[in-house]
Input
Amino acid sequence: MEADASFEGRVAVVTGGARGIGDAIAQAFREAGARVVVLDKLEPQEPRDGVRYATADVSDPGSVAAAFETVDAEEGRIDVLVNNAGIQRPGLIGQTSFENWSDVIGTHLTGMFLCCSQAVPRLIAQGTGGAIVSVASTAAIVGLPGRGPYCAAKAGIVSLTRVLALEGAPVGIRANAVAPGYTRTQLVQQALDDGSQREEWMLERVPLNRLAAPAEIARVVRFLASDDASYVTGQTIVVDGGWTIQGISAAPGWLRTDEAAPAPA
Amino acid sequence: MLETIAGRNGARRAVVTGAASGIGEAVARRLLRDGVAVVAADRDEAGLERVAAEGATPLVVDLARADERLRVVEAADGGDFLVNAAGIIRLVPIFETTLDDWRDIYAVNAEATFFLCQQVGPRLRTGGAIVNFSSVSAKASGTTEAAIYASSKAAVISITRSFAYALASRPVRVNCICPGITDTPMQEQVLVEVAAIRGITYQQLAEARLAQVPLARSTTPDELASLVAFLLSDEAGYMTGQAINFCGGLVMT
Output
């Protein structure tokens, strides 16, 4: 990737940017000249040069408000918000706990709501417009047994993106989402290494016959936030190597209910 | 914003259909600016002179004819990109439109797109990409005077998915774009002819259409061309089979 300066002078806030896709998104915006603030519960494993890290729990209103005050104090503006923070708690409905449901919805969907609630008034006050990009998932489009809260949260992100696009249009705020398919994050790589997921099960369904690199998701996020996408709003862009264009016919083994997570205590 | 799509792997070559005007012309210009060698195909010989003056190789061809399309296939052989931007529209009240309208519109919008994907796709170099043009009218059918056009554009989405799957193993990626209201000669034709059919003024129709767009404006072929450049580039290397709405929020599904 050649360096470019198209985000020079702009501030991008990326939630969940300490790991995985969020880390790649933070890096992509840095490469394009943005100042980047990562909000995450976790400390970064490998902090990126020039990225500011702030501790925040996106599911907690007080924590999110405090984090955006930090952004105000340190950067003085915001141009791009990327809602990326997410967690996984597999389990069948009827067996998974209310706590798991709440944690998943809280991080993905409530987290997006809370961060947008902070960002939108700031963007309006600045009078500059801005871009909100949220990381959904192909799970918003197809049903995945054992991933009820996750699928519902991601579908919620797609829906909230449309509402934000309509509410934001008169004030120059664009809102879009990216729906990644299987992506080779550290978390996925660990699961492949320990045998809890198998790559051939995933690739059976992916026409391009490979997993995405986190940077490939990050570039689409950055495109949507850029001026090149100035007429794109309310959309969910699927980046899945073609997985969902063929529909799900036979569920691979790891999706069978008898192999899903055990009942909660 | 993007690194130029030429350069990384040496010279790149593209065929752009419908390149004599509107979106196809803007795409041809954009690719030329990015250092891509462009064959500009259209039946409008005079119109092609504009992009030819900027360095494109003109190819005068009637895409509705299978024998003439073979010349496009030859020109694209061993190239990197195919952009199927050629399209035609006829505005006729839905209960008056004829089988000839259907056949003429489908010949360019659906048939040429299908058979150019079929014949050019396997001849593109590994890592190549195709962008087809659908339309938001494939998803929202308020302009019933364009029902056949809209239906042919819905076919383009299906064609895109099928060839995305069929060409994935090379890999050649195939995506399509659904533009909304775009400032092109075709858009002018829609406004003039639909306003006449409905007995309203051009201005009334233009305003009524724009009122449906959350971003409250139309787009330009140049703005649209940056999405084409993105989809052709490695930046979109994991995207295939998608229909991307470029419409200011006019449709969101």
User: Anything to note?
Assistant: The mean pLDDT of chain B is 95.
